[in-house]
Amino acid sequence: MNTKVLSSGIRYSTLPESYIRPESERPRLSEVSECENVPVIDLGSHNRIQVVQQIGDACKCYGFFQVINHGVPLGIAKEMGEVAYEFFKLPVEEKMKLYSDDPSRTMRLSTSFNMNKETVHNWRDYLRLHCYPLDKYVPEWPSNPHTFKEIVTKYCKEVRELGFRIQEHISESLGLEKDYMKNVLGEQGQHMAVNYYPACPEPELTYGLPGHTDPNALTILLQDQNVAGLQVLKDGKWLAVNPYPDAFVINIGDQFQALSNGIYKSVWHRAVVNVDKPRLSVASFLCPYDEALISPAKPLTENGTGAIYRGYTYAEYYKKFWSRDLVDKEHCLELFKNN
Ligand code: OGA
Ligand code: NI
């Protein structure tokens, strides 16, 4: 039987051929820097001006930061991680009922990134859910584990609020009205990728996710507290984002890069895998509503540069993104530049 998913209970002693990257594209793990961390920002601080400043600096320099005292109850984050692990531990026959390679499906279990477009596969299984509005999508979510829907619903609500708070900070840090981004993005969509990266026999030869940028507005990542794997590109070098206790990792997606007229960066990042331990992450993506018109904020185009990107709808962007392979070397936003 072709089980398709990696989390099938089969242990591989060598990496199957279709996962092996050509020599020039391998992760070169020994060259990854461990000595610098992306900023950890205390959202519980009463010094709002300082927090806004820290977020602005992080968005410019790293496109990434971590937040602590973020207001999401720690118990809810912990339960989310646990139920995600339980899901991937289910028997493969049970999981395969949810399997699909079709990116247009609003609920699916899949593997790698885009099986129909890519030439080399990635050492990842993922469950992809739409999460807003909840009453529309929860009915199609997995009902096994039996606590899944309840826990994930609670988690999604909290993470959405956290995302909105951060969007306010981001607007202010660009010198815009607090509600600027929220207003442009409209009634935001929310998607989730529950990523499961099984232990991998040869992590030097492959990726969990190869370098990519996120096509949405803002990503809120719950990392495995015990196993590292996320790396971000800074000044041409890969930097490990090691788990920080009780923190979320936040990153700017392509839409905030466009809206900020390129001042904030949707940075390349990747997930690498480990030889002895599986790793789990839960990525929540806040997305503009489909018809949202994305174009650089006017006040940010008046310093002589003009608008770097043309206006487009999010629907147009998203379609373009999924028509490509993740390892296309060019940033998808390059295709939307004014010339
Ligand atoms: C993603 C992503 C990183 C990780 O899902 O877009 O970048 O650490 N995940 O799993
Ligand atoms: Ni990503």
TrEMBL record:
Q: Does the keyword Cell wall biogenesis/degradation apply?
A: no
Q: Which domain of life is it from?
A: Eukaryota
Which stretches are annotated as coiled coil?
none
Q: Does the record's keyword annotation contain Lyase? A: no
Which Gene Ontology terms describe the biological processes this protein takes part in?
defense response to oomycetes
Identify this protein by name.
Fe2OG dioxygenase domain-containing protein
Q: Which reaction does it catalyse?
A: salicylate + NADH + O2 + H(+) = 2,3-dihydroxybenzoate + NAD(+) + H2O
